[in-house]
Design a protein that fits this description.
The chain is built from 7 helices and 5 strands; from the N terminus they run βββαααβαβααα. The chain has about 180 residues and is α/β, with parallel strands linked by helices. A hairpin with a 7-residue loop joins β1 and β2.
């Protein structure tokens, strides 16, 4: 793993978090996006998303508390995609357990026949889970990492999780 570059110019990135309605990666039901420039949060975006058929599993609802009633009148992913594209296109993306969030984005876009490659996302995504594991955090779940770093978190609320991830990424540059 490369050492995180700590100059202010390198601290331009976008943190993202998805919640899903079912075990299917294309069932995004909430998104949170934090845009960071020069080490400062400059934009926050979040939205509920109506998943396909507005279907939920008990397990997922038990984790994040979002139900079909919450998303009954919510926009679908294609409806909010212009907002997402504006915030992600050409950016360095950071997520906690990036393989999950990257998979949700890719599979949801595929489900709706949207072209993931048009986002021109810089690869690989940065992963705060991997960064903090490498720093000796065990466990390295988002809630535990945020608690250890003094970052306020409402776990499994997409915007709060994205903000927590962004703060962890910013703080990781200063940890030994």
């Amino acid at each position: 793993m490369d050492k995180l570059n700590t100059d202010k110019q390198s601290m331009n990135f976008t943190a993202i978090d998805f919640e899903t309605a079912t075990g299917k990666r294309y069932s995004a039901c909430a998104i949170g996006i934090i845009t960071v420039e020069n080490g400062k949060i400059i934009d926050e975006y979040d939205s509920l998303i109506q998943p396909p058929d507005n279907e939920y599993s008990y397990y997922n609802t038990n984790v994040h508390g979002i139900t079909e009633n919450d998303t009954f009148n919510a926009l679908t992913f294609p409806d909010i995609y212009p907002e997402i594209r504006e915030r992600l296109a050409g950016k360095t993306i950071v997520a906690h357990n990036e393989s999950f969030d990257r998979g949700v984005l890719q599979k949801t876009m595929e489900y709706y026949d949207l072209n993931y490659s048009e986002l021109n996302i810089l690869n690989p995504w940065e992963c705060t889970l991997k960064i903090y594991r490498a720093k000796g955090y065990h466990p390295a779940s988002l809630d535990i990492c945020c608690k250890r770093q003094g970052i306020k978190l409402n776990h499994h609320e997409a915007l709060s999780d994205a903000r927590g991830c962004a703060m962890l990424y910013l703080k990781s540059a200063n940890l030994e």
